[in-house]
Amino acid sequence: MTTAADDFLDLSDIQGIVVKAYSRFGFPVARYVLFRIDLPAHGRKFVVGITPMITTGVRWTDPASIPSAATNIAFTYKGLKHLDVLDASLHGFSDEFSMGMKARRDIVGDTGPNHPRHWDPVWHNESETGQHVHILVTIDGKGETEVEARYRQILALLVECPGVVQLSGQRGGGSDDLPYQPAAAIPPKPEEAGFPGGKEHFGYSDGISTTFFKGCGADPMEVIGEDKPVKGDPRTLEGWAPVAAGELIFGYPDEAFEYPEAPGPPLFSRNGTYLVYRKLHENTGSFESYLEAEGARFPGGKEALAAKFAGRWRNGAPLATFPTQESADRYIAELSALQLKVWAGQASPAEQARYQELALQLVALDYGDDKDGARCPFGAHTRRVNPRSALRFGNKKAFADDPGALSNRRRVLRRGLPYGRSETPARDDGDHGIVIMIVNADLSRQFEFVQQQWITFGNDFKLANDQDPLPGNHGTSKNCRAGGRMII
Amino acid sequence: MANQSGNAYALALLCPVRAGAPPAGFDGQCQESYAAHLRYVLQSVRVSGDSPMARVPNTYLSRFFLLDDVFYQGSPALEEHLKSSYLVFCCNFHGELEPYLTGMWKTIESEVRLILNHCVGFSDQTVRDAAAFIAYIKKCEIKTTFYFNGSTDQPLAEQLKGLYLKQEFSKFAFENQGRSAREIQEAFGEFIKGTEPENTARPAWKPGVYDLDKVVAK
Amino acid sequence: MSNIAGKAYAMNVITPLKWLTTLRTRLIFWGAGKLPSTTLGLVTLSLIHYARWVILRPKDFPHLGPEQPKEDLQYCYMLFFSNFNGSWDQYVDSFSSTIPTGLDSFWYKNIKYTNSIPMLPFHRYITWNQIWTDNYYNAYPMASTNDVKSAQKVRQNLIDFARSTANATPDDFQRQYNKLLLSLQHDLSQMGLNPVVSLSASAVDRRLGKERRGVS
């Protein structure tokens, strides 16, 4: 299925975290570790030491080729400076990257309770030395043991490089001073066992759709519903095309038929990209109590209300395709049962085919048959952050028949996992949320734009100042209730 | 020519700025030019709800800037330069040109003088009344080749009344969810009495105000 | 000095073109005025309050008296003025992705025009030829063009509804009220300040003393 023309990406020089959503490869556990570089020579030594452990984007063709743990690395601007990267190269980075996310807080809406002063302590104490988080190392693995082993291997490198310091100060488990950020997938409910995505703490199945880009090495069938809509039936391959690799990785042409701006020389930036790291706390108590109270008077009840927020039922079924809870439940039950059989290698050819057909329905939609938002509201989370063809508002001829004209250059890759436990979901103040990492080649046009215009504003959806009901910054009123509104 | 789209009018002016510096030099020093002083004046004109343009009836959007020169596009393009600086005034408004300019003269004559006194052919002596002002503007008007109206062409008061009602009715709909038919009907009666949808004068949004707490004219 | 007034951004672009080119460009504009389908993309994009293109021949520069030197220009100039919602980048990028051919025909053969795709040279072309606004006024800084159009609909619906339900029974009122809400379902979002679209916008806000919701 993969043609030579699709093999132009140098996957062995691109980090695995860019190309692979690790949770899809049976890696439910992760640690995110931060370091500071005090001595550039030691910093470089550390990088040399960790390089053999870095997981690349080379395709895992069979289960035996999947390692027990994956390691990836990212640097802040100051981190690169502390590695003595040449000024000429540093000056080639975008303002968004060199300033860092704290300084961009007004632009991305990190105000009020989301202000950097409320972030984990590891992000504080930066007044004297400037930004002191220099390196992020991510470890994803099959289990706690595998992750712990890799973690130890990495820390062992520090013995030889005392000029690199592991930073503590991550919040979790009642502490403000964890040496790393732990994260782990939340397994699906028993009746949804077999469903491909994990859960997050509000109870939604997450990580269902990802961005399929040219040359990423995944199964071409996965292009359906996973990236840019083109003329053609959105339920088939004819309706979709892979997004250009340059939207996500430096050194390849992007959707405007040019190379994304990146620092020189080309060897320095090629196959690299920008990664945004965000830790989002979830107020599970408020969320559940709101759903209970409002769901009681909402037709369809709390589950239907939760579905209107997300654009997907909490079990993962897309609202635009499955407008009733009954149809959504039936669909997910059948899909999950078939998935288990497929994994076990016990599916008959007929079951295989049925499984393919059902799996497609998770993502093969473009809102073309829901242009008024009768099923999935304009302001629902998934319709906002990935509007597919929705921004044509039903005017098929509007943008030279290019249904994704307003969304193709806003695509990003989402990585990361939930953290903490919500065993007491009645409370807001526990340790629970998600670590989300966003990969893109242009921080301003992609991440910041989506965060600002599509999550913390509503004009593109003709919703004035309404924000995304889930990750929007709704502020808090005097009685600490969130001030958000949404029209469903 | 396309200065109009329905009842919306696109006015654009190029007013040549006087050459050199005003004569009133201080202690023999070189004074800033008319153009530089005009730019200072334009940047000092108040903005938002305090802008003089908020007093000019039917102004949707307007802008002032100084065009000092044209841009050279690099070889092999020709290099050429303007011989004057021009004050550019662009305005989108509801209605016909002459009534609009008459409204402007009536409401903000002193501000207009403060600005246009920097321009060739405009002075307290040459422009004494609205008719002379209109004649001057017509000499400076440049014709729009293509006008795109992506909004409405209603009178401004109707636009502002609509915005007020949109904001207030969305609160009403939100607050009255789940109430009985009789309760909603009663509340709606009060709502109509309080908001007077057919009365464009008030209550309505005030022009130019960028503050939710201050935008309503009761 | 600011190009921003609430939710609106004022763009001024001036670019040279040859006299012969203006003939073709005028024809394109004339056609666009006659054929609404030409601007369907702009209408669907719905980011513009009002925009205009002005083609100036050398003799069109106003000359008001002997004290003003006469212009001596070879090129004609195209002036583009727009009042749009969102950031500069959003506007330029949206233009370039949604109506590249329309855009290219409007700027057809302007000297050194780059075409709207690829985008980086187009960005540079616009930036190079853009003039900053010294004073910008917007009658409804808290409204986008979507909001203005939606407000007109809300007002008309309310007037009609109030008239038709003046003597309705509560049940009849409820039925019609529900219909009203359904027809206004995309028009009932609240307006407010613009998000901070750029660091210069946040600096302007600070100068104006604007407090943002949720800023602690």
Description:
The complex is a heterotrimer of chains A (about 500), B (about 220) and C (about 220). Chain A is of the alpha+beta class and about 500 residues long. Chain A is about 25% helix and about 15% strand. In chain A, helix 2 (about 40-50) packs antiparallel against helix 7 (about 145-160), helix 9 (about 285-295) packs across helix 10 (about 300-310) and helix 11 (about 325-345) crosses helix 12. Chain B has helices at about 35-45, 95-115, 130-140, 155-175, 180-195; strands at about 5, 10-15, 60-65, 85-95, 145-150, 205, 215. Chain B is about 35% helix and about 15% strand. Chain B has 5 helices and 7 strands. In chain B, strand 1 and strand 2 form a beta hairpin. Chain C folds into 2 domains: about 5-130, no CATH class; about 145-185. In chain C, strand 1 and strand 2 form a beta hairpin. Strand 3 of chain B pairs antiparallel with strand 5 of chain C.
Q: Strands, helices and their partners?
A:
The complex is a heterotrimer of chains A (488), B (218) and C (216).
Chain A: H1 16-19, E1 29-37, H2 40-50, E2 69-75, H3 77-82, H4 87-90, H5 95-99, H6 105-108, E3 135-141, H7 144-160, E4 164-167, E5 170-172, E6 175-178, E7 181-184, E8 228-229, E9 240-241, H8 266-269, E10 274-281, H9 284-295, H10 301-310, H11 325-344, H12 349-361, H13 381-385, E11 413-420, E12 432-440, H14 444-455
Helix pairs in contact in A: 2-7, 9-10, 11-12
Chain B: E1 4-5, E2 8-16, H1 34-44, E3 59-67, E4 86-94, H2 97-116, H3 130-140, E5 146-149, H4 156-175, H5 181-195, E6 204-205, E7 216-217
Antiparallel strand pairs in B: 1-2, 2-4, 3-4, 6-7
Chain C: E1 4-5, E2 8-17, H1 19-34, H2 40-45, E3 48-56, E4 76-85, H3 88-98, H4 100-106, H5 119-128, E5 135-138, H6 145-164, H7 170-183, H8 199-208
Antiparallel strand pairs in C: 1-2, 2-4, 3-4
